[in-house]
Amino acid sequence: MFDSNPFAEVSALIPPSFMQTYVVVMILLVAGGTLYDVYHKKSAQYFFENWRKSKSRGAKSVDMNSIAIKTAVHDVLASGEFCNPKRRIAHLLTMYGFILYVLSTAIMVFWYPTPDVATPAILPFLWWLGGLMVAVGGYWFWFFIRVDVAAEGNSPLRVVHADLFILSLLASVTFGLIWAYLQSNGSSWTTVFLGLYLIATTVLFGSIPWSKFSHMFFKPAAALQKRVAVANGSYDNLPPPADRSDPATRDRHSMELLKDAPLDMGLGIKREQPRHY
User: What integer pLDDT is reported at residue 173 of this predicted model?
Assistant: First the structure.
């Protein structure tokens, strides 16, 4: 099962040309949906305006190569924006699992579409591994880590519009894994779950203008812009972080209540998890 190409096996039912066309259409939906989202929400316009304002207000020169590397390593590859380690692990499992899952799918569909072309055993293994990583990270997040479940006491079965991306992703991967398992065992339910797999995948890639899918493209740009704003001293037109060890800072009117407070004030709201519902 883990070394068998599920897309080659199904080629007896669905022509490889259909599968390849379907993958191309999904790629076009991602590109088109993202461009529409950028145009509709004016996110690119907002980003470039903020970038221009940051450069004009910045009083320091910045090393863009260093900032870009830090952004790529810390914010993108390591998902450093998540302070909660469980949330970060769940996100990394889902992100890298999705990458493995999508890449291995594309390679098997285009390069090894039929049983006549031997599929390297590593590709189906990576497909299964990626799918299981998405399932573990996604269901862990959905049932135990989501803020409205973990901190606000809402039911994990509560669904809102913002959940479209994660739910369609989990549905696509779950139905895909079940379909591949049933197909390898010759089950009569194989065709049913293949249909569910295709429907869920179409919803995942076709609903980008209404889901959070495109955030994966926006977040690296936002993280880069934020690091540039801190490095050049503009802070996105916000005041710089207060240094309470500086007497001049402590004498400011806004710091009056904290003037005589200890510099180390403890954990504060981080002392315990917010579970007081």
Answer: 98
Q: Please give the angle made by the CA atoms of 217, 166 and 86, to the nearest 5 degrees.
A: 90
Label residues 155-168 b or e (16+ Cβ within 10 Å = b): eeeeeeeebbbbbb
Cα 243 to Cα 12, 79, 247, 251: the distances in Å are: 68, 27, 9, 11
Q: What is the pLDDT of residues 76-130, one digit of tens each?
A: 999 988 888 899 999 999 999 999 999 999 999 999 999 999 999 999 999 999 9
- Residue type present at position 240: P
CA atoms within 13 A on the CB side of 59: 5
101 token code pair: 């899952």
List domains and CATH numbers for the chain.
6-240 (1.20.950)
How would you label 10-22 residue by residue, b for 16+ Cβ within 10 Å and e otherwise? bbeeeebeebeee
How far lies 155's CA from each of 102, 166, 270, in Å? 31, 16, 24
Residue 126 vs residues 4, 98, 107, 145: alpha-carbon distances, Å: 11, 11, 11, 26
The token duo for 67 is: 């900032």
Placement of tokens 């090393």 in the chain: 63
